[in-house]
Design goal:
A hairpin with a 2-residue loop joins strand 3 and strand 4. The protein has one domain: Winged helix-like DNA-binding domain superfamily/Winged helix DNA-binding domain (Arc Repressor Mutant, subunit A, Orthogonal Bundle). The C terminus is likely disordered. Helix content is 36%, strand content 6%. It is mainly alpha-helical and 136 residues long. Helix 1 packs across helix 3 and helix 2 packs across helix 3. It has a two-stranded parallel sheet. It has a two-stranded antiparallel ribbon with strand order 3-4.
Length: 136
């Protein structure tokens, strides 16, 4: 199966690359979480494609992105699964006996995620009390 080329220059691709690069060691994010804070709440598959195409070029910590059930998306029998799990364990991420990560403990959240910049004024209206809603 041939993979289609990802356009790295779209605003969404740029935002995904920027957000994934900011996930700190010892924390994980979900594909949907990255999609949402990158401006496309339904773009979790797009995040996966971008990681597949761009992780090596941009030296992204791709291993820190897992699915919304707290699981690695690769099949457990593959070398990719074992590689991702080993990388996460080296960073201090713990897995349950069923192979899941506790999202409440290890997910990159509101306290550590970078805030999106909002202009001080939009059409002259003050937005000082407006906070970006990054996580549902």
């Amino acid at each position: 199966m041939a993979f289609k080329k990802v356009n790295e220059n779209t605003p969404f691709s740029k935002a995904v690359i920027k957000m994934v690069a900011k996930i700190p060691k010892g924390k994980i994010a979900t594909y949907g979480q990255i999609a949402k804070i990158s401006g496309n709440a339904g773009g979790s598959r797009g995040v996966a494609w971008i990681l597949h195409a761009c992780s090596k070029k941009y030296k992204l910590p791709w291993q820190r992105v897992i699915n919304s059930q707290g699981k690695i998306s690769f099949d457990k029998s593959t070398k990719e699964y074992k590689n991702q799990k080993n990388l996460l364990i080296k960073e201090g991420i713990q897995f349950s006996d069923t192979g899941t990560v506790n999202l409440k403990t290890f997910q990159w959240g509101k306290k550590t995620a970078p805030k999106r910049k909002i202009p001080a004024s939009i059409s002259g209206a003050s937005v000082s009390k407006v906070k970006p809603k990054m996580f549902g």
